[in-house]
Amino acid sequence: MENIALVVGSTGITGSNLARELVYQGWKTYGLARNPSNGTMGLLPVTADLLDEESLTAALDGISPTHVFFTTWMRNDTEEENIRINSALVRNLLNVLSPKKSVRHVALVTGLKHYLGPFEAYAKAGSLPETPLREDQPRLEYPNFYYAQEDAVYEASARDGFNWSIHRPHTVIGYAVGNLMNMGATLAVYASICKETGRKFIFPGSSEQWNGLCDVTDARILARQLVWAATTEGAENQAYNITNGDIFRWKWLWLQLAAYFQIEPEGFAGSARPLERELEHDQLLWEEIAQRHGLKESKLSKIASAWHTDLDLGRPIEVMTDMANSRKAGFTAYQSTLDSFTDLFDKLRQEKIIP
User: Fold this and answer.
1) Is 100 one of the catalytic residues?
2) How far apart are CA 284 and CA 300, in angstroms?
3) Annotated catalytic residue: which of 146, 147, 175, 190?
4) Which residues, other chains included, contact 288 with Cβ-Cβ below 8 Å and sequence gap of 6+?
5) Which is the catalytic residue, given 30, 113, 115, 240?
6) In what order do the strands lie in the sheet with 238-242?
7) What count of Cα atoms within 13 Å lies in the side-chain half-sphere of residue 351?
8) What GO molecular function annotations does the UniProt record carry, in alphabetical order (predicted)?
9) Where does the pLDDT of residue 117 fall: very low under 50, low under 70, confident under 90, or very high at 90 and above?
10) Which of 2, 39, 256, 300 could tie 286 with a disulfide, CB 3.0–4.6 Å?
11) pLDDT for the residue numbered 141
């Protein structure tokens, strides 16, 4: 039976890397987004607004996916609005697909805020979970749009009979421009500014992040787990943490990133020094850098999301994850974290995003 994938959020870090992996593996692959890109050879673009069921119905006319991969979300001012909007994104799509009776598996990508809490209560003192974060840890008491998205999948699964999988990456490192949460590109831009100006490459985060153990998730290994869970007997109907499989300390990795750019690093020095504050006056500087080097994007906010990098690196806890569920079921892929960053930096240079 032919596998037909619908990648929802196909222009983001997770969705675009997943689309490439599915096309590479020979799947017929549709990529749904508000402004889909045709940058992936073989990907079939679908333009639709997930908040408009009529738009979805028209866009998906004649498309009957066997596998749905949901990789997108919308940021709102409050968690209540996050819950309302982001659960609707999932529910609307699955409602539109329900009459087709074609869907066999739905995969939902969320993240470690499942364990750390939503933005409004993110990793706050007094509510810190025990690490490593394990897949069987209970939900927190805080309202959380990840839980609402999961519940929308569970409800549709009970109604329509498809299998599901939930995937919880740590910080995702991969190529995508204009993504809302992109630590890799943000650090590449910051390092490039440091190289151009002679500024020190200052670690923006907490002592716990600087000294503690950490892991991250390469978008490519996340893509491999998504496809694995969708096609492996016995892997269905489970939640999976997903990281590269190695651990590191930022006080080591920060020096490696500085060495790549040939700039001078500076580590934690008693308090956090947020990157958002460091970059807030650099728009004109970036325009000059972009013009001088012939870069594709001169708007700093389109390639750097300092607020999110500060959120991750400012946590008052070391964060690493346990991957027991997928390891026991046979998923053994591994990715070097240093290679995740340097591969991305090479790609950003090749694509003229950084000098």
Assistant:
1) no
2) 9
3) 146
4) none
5) 113
6) 44-47, 28-33, 4-8, 67-70, 105-109, 163-169, 238-242
7) 14
8) oxidoreductase activity
9) confident
10) 300
11) 86
